[in-house]
UniProtKB/TrEMBL annotation:
This is Flavin reductase. The lineage of its organism: Bacteria, Pseudomonadati, Pseudomonadota, Candidatus Muproteobacteria. InterPro entries: Flavin_Rdtase-like_dom, Flavoredoxin, Split_barrel_FMN-bd. It holds the Pfam family Flavin_Reduct. GO terms for molecular function: FMN binding; oxidoreductase activity, acting on the CH-NH group of donors, NAD or NADP as acceptor.
């Protein structure tokens, strides 16, 4: 039997992304987040508007989306309850956050140069997506339940360079990621999880992945959004 409940959060399980941006003084900031999803080469990021990452992203227009693998969980957890905002906003103070200017050092992660954007990539992350800002808007602000609170931001970024650990590349397909080799770290409500194995053959995967490429779509006249 289903029950009607009123949960405080609806975080049903999404991958953990470490977003790197540059601070005003040129030093890097790094923030764990998981309100992220992708369509085509664009990604929507959901951020508390008081965080340093959206401020950096809106000011500089650039970031790197570093995808954490399940085996990075201890390093990711070291980034929790930290902010690059100094001083932290009142709600974060109350929740036990502290200002940390050296997130890479605190987590034991290594910054390496990106190719097309200024913020660094995270060496230890098997997937590193260099991205630029396309759009940002308040999110969920029409919900009367949250009246009086600052709205979070939905930030749309566009991936312009994809770096992938070669061990994740599918045999015989130089531009495909093998989903059986990619083991993302998942935040499910506020706990860390990994993925299990393939559950069932997928009918959606019966046509070639390359059908999604824009050139292929134009060639075949399949221009609608899928
Ligand atoms: C695994 C994980 C996932 C998180 N997901 C989000 C998220 O999706 N959106 C968000 O605003 N904060 C999220 N947080 C909290 C941010 O990391 C936190 O607000 C942090 O202070 C942001 O850093 P910054 O202020 O330096 O940008 C998450 C934290 C952890 C540990």
């Amino acid at each position: 039997m289903h029950k009607i409940i009123d949960p405080a959060i609806l975080y049903f399980g999404t991958p953990v992304v470490l977003v790197s941006t540059l601070n005003e003084d040129g030093s890097p900031n790094l923030a764990p987040m998981s309100s992220a999803w992708w369509l085509r080469y664009s990604c929507m990021l959901g951020f508390d508007a008081s965080s340093k990452t959206p401020a950096n992203l809106l000011r500089t227009g650039e970031c790197v989306l570093n995808l954490a693998s399940a085996d990075m969980v201890d390093k990711v957890d070291r980034l929790a309850l930290l902010t690059g905002t100094n001083p932290p906003p009142p709600h974060k103070n109350r929740w036990g956050y502290r200002y940390e200017p050296d997130k890479f050092g605190t987590a034991g992660l290594t910054p390496i140069a990106s190719e097309r954007v200024a913020p660094p990539r995270v060496l230890e992350c098997p997937v590193q997506l260099e991205a630029v800002l396309d759009d940002a808007r308040p999110f969920g602000e029409k919900d009367p339940k949250y009246a009086g609170l600052n709205a979070p931001l939905a930030i749309e970024v566009r991936v312009i360079r994809v770096h992938v650990d070669e061990r994740l590349i599918a045999a015989g397909y130089p531009n495909r990621i093998d989903p059986t080799k990619w083991q993302p770290l998942i935040m499910n409500f506020r706990q860390f999880f990994g993925l299990g194995n393939i559950l069932h053959p997928s009918r959606l995967s019966e046509f070639p992945e390359e059908a999604f490429k824009p050139r292929e779509r134009l060639k075949t006249g399949t221009t609608g959004t899928a």
